[in-house]
From TrEMBL:
Recorded coiled-coil stretches: none
Organism (species): Hungatella hathewayi
GO molecular function, one term: hydrolase activity, acting on carbon-nitrogen (but not peptide) bonds
InterPro entries, sorted: Amidohydro-rel, Metal-dep_hydrolase_composite, Metal_Hydrolase, Metallo-dep_Hydrolase
Pfam families recorded: Amidohydro_1 (PF01979)
Protein name (database record): Amidohydrolase family protein
SUPFAM superfamilies per the UniProt record, alphabetical: Composite domain of metallo-dependent hydrolases, Metallo-dependent hydrolases
Amidohydrolase-related domain mapped to chain residues: 67-384
Length: 424
């Protein structure tokens, strides 16, 4: 198994805000074996009896002046096409929280773990459960009309090894209560868009696990505080919240996006078509939210809880897979008042804790998985430095700068027949 030493790096362990300068990291078998000074000198000493000490065949990679952070985790995405995998990795995202899962997602997850697929590790919810909602164009969600529908959704979610049951807000109150009860009995956390028909405090009291999107939070500060203090998690997804005013009302167009050309042509065309339907739907309903109100709700939650994650909701039209994570982190700093450390924690430590993998991922520590990103800049001084990815290590895989750059542009040349899309 390949062994590496990253030498002379500046390490953000994410235990706290401290940076450990000019330090080496020894990686073996996909794990961080040792962190310390001058580990590369051990290569010249020959093989040691200690399994956590570098051997003579260890490759030494000098990252002098670079900054090492844990692999990023997109806390809310829809990994629905295989081209997305390399874009995630190119942007330092080594794991994702996929928020609509079908059997093929479970297969993707297994294939990635087995080394047969290039892309982030996948931790997924099951399908989206919702009630009848005519405001959603081309609604493909699992519609909950009876208790039997609830049972089927739970069985499918558990049967495919998914971690959460996901809900949309139009489930009828009695069915929603039944869903929450049965999910709790099965040990299955429930996440999603809260409820339009049931007091959100009821969801909190029943252990609702995570509110997705600032726009899903209730209107009143006291109610938001109640959710935050209940122990609920929260994913603001501010960037996607802004797509409604930007594209529907303010005239923004998809080709203006910095990395729009890096998407496959068929995806660009699909996004344009979807966006026209979205614009028509929202204008027809006259829905025109004040984005300042949305931000205020998210900030209120974060006043009372640090259980929040950075998620992008890619690949919703306008949210580029991988690249949108930097946008989201910048918005957490600029709009939500987070420090760069708090924003970075929302993409590393926090989602790892939420998922239940905090002992393996989310920090740079001996014994943890070697999911690491090498940056050409200090993200604690400028969170935008997360864009400056020089190298990505994901377990036993190392992607150097040349490979990362190729990943960034490769998808733009793919033809429709070369891409697998996961349909539902």
């Amino acid at each position: 198994m390949k062994q590496y030493i990253l030498t002379h790096g500046n390490i953000l362990t994410m235990k706290d805000r401290t940076i450990t300068y000019d330090t080496d990291i020894f990686i073996k078998d996909g794990k961080i074996q040792r962190i310390g000074k001058d580990l590369a000198k051990a290569v010249q000493r020959g093989t040691s009896e200690r399994t956590d000490w570098p051997e003579c065949d260890t490759e030494v990679l000098d990252i002098r002046g670079r900054y090492v952070i844990p692999g990023l985790i997109d806390g809310h995405c829809h990994y629905d096409a295989d081209y997305m995998g390399k874009l995630f990795l190119a942007c330092g995202i080594t794991s994702v929280r996929n928020m609509r899962g079908y059997k093929r997602h479970a297969e993707y997850a297994a294939e990635t773990l087995a080394g047969r697929r290039t892309g982030p590790y996948i931790y997924s919810s099951g399908p989206i459960c919702d009630g009848e909602d005519k405001t959603i164009p081309d609604n493909t969600n699992e519609i909950i009309r009876t208790e039997a529908d609830v049972e089927r959704a739970i069985e499918y979610t558990i049967g495919n090894g998914f971690l959460w049951l996901k809900t949309y807000p139009s489930i009828e109150p009695e069915l929603y209560r039944y869903l929450l009860k049965r999910a709790k009995q099965q040990g299955l956390p429930v996440c999603g868009h809260m409820s339009k028909k049931l007091d959100n405090k009821v969801l909190a009291d029943e252990g609702y696990f995570c509110c997705e999107h600032s726009s899903s939070l209730p209107a009143h500060k006291a109610d938001i505080r109640y959710l935050a203090e209940s122990g609920m998690w929260f994913t603001p997804t501010q960037t996607v919240c802004e797509t409604l005013p930007d594209y529907v009302w303010n005239g923004k167009t998809l080709p203006e996006l910095a990395h729009f050309k890096d998407l496959p042509e068929c995806e660009r065309e699909s996004w344009e078509s979807k966006n026209r339907k979205i614009i028509e739907s929202y204008r027809g309903q006259g829905i025109r939210p004040d984005i300042r109100v949305v931000i205020g709700r998210g900030r209120t939650f974060m006043e009372y809880s640090n259980r929040f994650m950075a998620g992008t909701d890619c690949a919703y039209p306008g949210i580029i897979p991988g690249f949108s994570m930097a946008d989201e982190l910048e918005k957490l700093v600029e709009l939500y008042g987070c420090s760069p450390y708090e924003a970075l924690k929302a993409a590393t430590v926090n989602p790892a804790e939420h998922i239940g993998i905090g002992e393996k991922k989310g920090r740079v520590r001996e014994g943890m998985d070697a999911d690491l990103v090498v940056l050409n800049g200090n993200p604690l001084a400028d969170i935008g430095c997360v864009r400056k990815v020089q190298m990505v290590i994901q377990g036993t895989n190392l992607y150097d700068e040349e490979t990362v750059r190729a990943f960034c542009s490769e998808a733009g040349f793919l033809k429709r027949e070369e891409i697998e899309f996961i349909h539902w």
